Amino acid sequence: MNTNTSRNENGSAYYLSQPQADLDLVSVVRGTPSGELLRRYWHPIAVASEVGELPFPVRALGEDLILFKTPRGEFGLVYPRCCHRGTTLYYGKVEECGIRCCYHGWLFSPDGKCLDQPCEPNGGEKRDNYRQPWYPVRERYGLVFAYLGPPDRMPILPRYEALEVLEPGEWIEPDGRSLGSGGDVIAPCNWFQHWENIMDPYHVAILHSAFSGIQFIPEMAQMPNVSFEPSPIGVTSTQIRSIEGKVFRRVTEVAMPTLRVVPNPWATGFNRPVESIGWTLPIDDTHYRIFTAGRAAESGPLYYPPKGLMSGNRRWQDMTEEERQRKPGDWEAQTGQGAITFHSEEHLASSDRGVAMLRRFFRKQIETVAAGGNPAGTIFDERDESVRFAAGNYLEAPAGIPVLQS
Amino acid sequence: MNTNTSRNENGSAYYLSQPQADLDLVSVVRGTPSGELLRRYWHPIAVASEVGELPFPVRALGEDLILFKTPRGEFGLVYPRCCHRGTTLYYGKVEECGIRCCYHGWLFSPDGKCLDQPCEPNGGEKRDNYRQPWYPVRERYGLVFAYLGPPDRMPILPRYEALEVLEPGEWIEPDGRSLGSGGDVIAPCNWFQHWENIMDPYHVAILHSAFSGIQFIPEMAQMPNVSFEPSPIGVTSTQIRSIEGKVFRRVTEVAMPTLRVVPNPWATGFNRPVESIGWTLPIDDTHYRIFTAGRAAESGPLYYPPKGLMSGNRRWQDMTEEERQRKPGDWEAQTGQGAITFHSEEHLASSDRGVAMLRRFFRKQIETVAAGGNPAGTIFDERDESVRFAAGNYLEAPAGIPVLQS
Amino acid sequence: MNTNTSRNENGSAYYLSQPQADLDLVSVVRGTPSGELLRRYWHPIAVASEVGELPFPVRALGEDLILFKTPRGEFGLVYPRCCHRGTTLYYGKVEECGIRCCYHGWLFSPDGKCLDQPCEPNGGEKRDNYRQPWYPVRERYGLVFAYLGPPDRMPILPRYEALEVLEPGEWIEPDGRSLGSGGDVIAPCNWFQHWENIMDPYHVAILHSAFSGIQFIPEMAQMPNVSFEPSPIGVTSTQIRSIEGKVFRRVTEVAMPTLRVVPNPWATGFNRPVESIGWTLPIDDTHYRIFTAGRAAESGPLYYPPKGLMSGNRRWQDMTEEERQRKPGDWEAQTGQGAITFHSEEHLASSDRGVAMLRRFFRKQIETVAAGGNPAGTIFDERDESVRFAAGNYLEAPAGIPVLQS
């Protein structure tokens, strides 16, 4: 029995070998190549306004942590188990100066210093010897960002021009509902499946149009003319379609570490900078969620979805299993690749060159970190300019002259 | 402390060693001795009429697969993950010629050939280089059968005389409700526990009679005179009881690969060939279900259960936990052996000689496959006759002259 | 990058090593050091009156077992899988002489002897060759106790003076609701986390008072003057507080193997022997429950909780998740240490010296067993006196003269 010949001739599933995921590329766990790369950046872990007076459990990059906000507005992020006897600080109490464990009352500052040990003589004469493991946090754009990496490699939290330059009456609105996942808040699959989908604009004409019916604007159903090119911090894709004789140029980007810079696919707001930025938070190897910050105005949010729709004319949450089978969207296509897709079974084609470019770029950053360097997009000088993206929906005269938005 | 002595003297559970299942005998997974034996046969995976226009997920022999039926009635069975980027074909669309992936629209024929790649130039100029892993399927007796083994060893799908020779007004009725499991459709235990129960007719007088009350006809409560003998494709058992002075001879069979050939235990239809055949589908190592095909007529189904009863006077689905504890049936006895029974802890006795004979027979087939041969019951010539079984309920005069059924 | 230096300087959670539980200390599984120690004692497995005519499944020390009570009141405890073909005796029938398997009717006495094999000739001529693995059981104080250890090391089931010497009108009331767990009947964490909490009286002033509000009597909110000393069978703690100028001396004990000897924390019944004894049953490595026996009288139970309260003014079962976060109790503090706490991450302080003393004592017993000896508290002579505890709530004049209870 010649298995290779048999398989080649017949294509039988009987000869499939054990499928494998490329964990060096997609794992988010500490100590893995990609997990260490991700730990060189700040990641959003919560919408700031959703953190109340109680300890707030978060899970990020495979780590369970407790976030808290003191009455004076300072955030702290600590290892969940009290360094004394291991009781979770989920049951702790947030006080003026930090968080206090319920069991024996040890009090910790946002940077883990032990401030009180009420069961010890004089409130703990040796309390300086104890420290609760902690991570730095920053609040920006209404989101709480954390840095889970080595302290001596901590970059600054970058600013993004699209969220810094506002028109009169605009403000920045944070969102933690996973806009763009196409489904629920927590998606049960590896984050990279979502992220590389951004560099896969071809699927818009199939999944979101021919297959499931029009899920965005009708013009998106056209198979676009697509190009990809590397950017300093990721990959940029340009998709050319036409709208009523004009050129509809749509530019989408992915940027380190997990950014999805995707202009509204319902294509409101032509010829302006992209209205929102999404961070794909890897919760762990098999779950992700998306935090978004975008410009909003009285006239309504500038970023999708318009009219409260997640996809098409029906909210994902309201669809039955059969409806999802009949009209799948991003959620189904990506979670349908499995908890972690089997990279060993893939067969990339020419339409996957954006995905391939993104993986090459990401692997290069992994190698940079492994070699002791700082990966793309890490900034160490607060005076550096805001990050600027090319992403946006552009409507242009065929000759290339911008067209005013109707 | 002499553990052996202590155990022998006292029988304490303290000295139990780690119990073990004989996975070489009962595993259904590809690559295991028994899993490879099972892969030399066709197995039913669905009732044909239950497969609609949507992709139909099935699980068989530990493999997740997608079954589909084209509008022209052709069945296809494929590996669930699209060979392109791994999205499950559960969200695919069944078309005239095959199944299309939702993500990038690749279209596959029932034998896995790639027919269209709409995101690639000209629909995929190199599409012949891609093939979706697949398995052959056949429809017969209202069931869909699949062959999950090596292509060069594929036997024909056998015909069974009991399902081929019909009286006027009879037809073949397929059933996927696991008739004979004594409970729900999917049983949470290894299939072999169910199968070898067929060669264990002694339990009928205990479990189904003395213990739980009469679950079949009252005459089955008699402890029968039992004999076993090997058949070319399995094991046959004859159980002799008496009914009103006549000889009630009941013949039951198991046949490769998973067949249960059990005449109606409510004993209607004496002196005719067995009215149905059941296939025990190993879903995976710890789950099975039963597909059945039997002769039916206007006067009612010829195979059990009569009057819609699964066992006794109460449907299993309607019984409480306490009722199941008080009146257990096959389901409780077999799932009660655990997900996979601990063969290392068994102590077979003389009443288990049918079980022992069946295991010897099955092990012999495993050895035949391991040695490169074709196991019992595999047929490679379509002209071969239908398989004939001796199974049935026979009512005979003491002298051995058949008695007409009243 | 110098990880040690970085960690020392910064306290970042990034440098946490993989946390570890000390399974040699806390595992309850057969074959582990602590599991073997626990197997040298009797453990309560059920409230006798809760065992009815049906087989009663229990789980203790990581072992699943079937308990049964014959019509004449004899208890049996057997390995769940019938030694014949492995069907669980959960579906068995309890008869005059033992338990009968549903499948083939084998009947076993409480000590595992096979009494009947109805499918075998003459009821099983060789039935004496078979034995169902079993453990000894005893009924006392309304509880069913079992011994899961080596038969040749079986001690007697001890008597406790606090449960043997009754006032007129008093009786012993058994309880299986896990009094003292602070929550539900089955707690999802290792038993040792609960047990060592008894030798941690400091937390009473924090968790049960300053943190969550007064959960016992107001006087317990005082940070006590605490001392610990080893007893022959465990550790004893004395906590001195004052009540209206009198000395409130509270003595609590832990005793081998799992006993919690804790006087009512609502402090009724001063100056009498402790009113109840609790046995912490290790269900498995990550679950425990508590059986209690205590003196009761017409005037109400002498052991806690009074007025049906588990903690504070609100029953745990009625609290919402947020309420438990705001007012945690023992349940939250102990299950909040995780399924098995990470001993590698602990930092014990001076207030943990009772916990440390208890662990040293317990480790010493583990070593004794490993060296072939009999651990503390195992008694082999029925004539030995009852075990006496010092535990109790004592109210005394400052000079040390006992004060009559008001």
Helix content of chain A: 10-25%
What's the story with the biggest beta sheet of chain A?
A: 9 strands, antiparallel
Low-confidence stretches of chain A: 1-8
Structural class determined from secondary elements of chain A:
alpha+beta
For the residues shown, what is the average pLDDT of chain A? 92
Total of DSSP H or I helical runs spanning 4+ residues of chain A: 9
Q: What is the chain-wise order of helices and strands of chain A? A: HHHEEEEEEEEEEEHEHHEEEEEEEHHHE
- Measured distance between first and last alpha carbons of chain A: 68 Å
The rounded Rg of chain A comes to 23 Å
Shape estimate of chain A? globular
- Largest interface (CB < 8 Å): A-C, 45 and 43 residues
Question: What topology emerges from the helices and strands here?
Answer:
The structure is a homotrimer of 406-residue chains.
Chain A lengths: L2 H8 L12 H4 L6 H6 L3 E6 L8 E5 L2 E7 L5 E4 L14 E3 L2 E3 L6 E2 L5 E3 L17 E2 L1 E4 L2 E5 L13 H4 L5 E6 L15 H8 L3 H10 L13 E7 L2 E10 L2 E10 L3 E3 L14 E9 L2 E11 L2 E2 L19 H6 L3 H6 L17 H18 L21 E5 L10
Antiparallel strand pairs in A: 1-11, 2-3, 3-4, 4-9, 5-6, 6-7, 7-8, 10-11, 12-18, 13-14, 14-15, 15-16, 15-20, 16-17, 17-18, 18-19
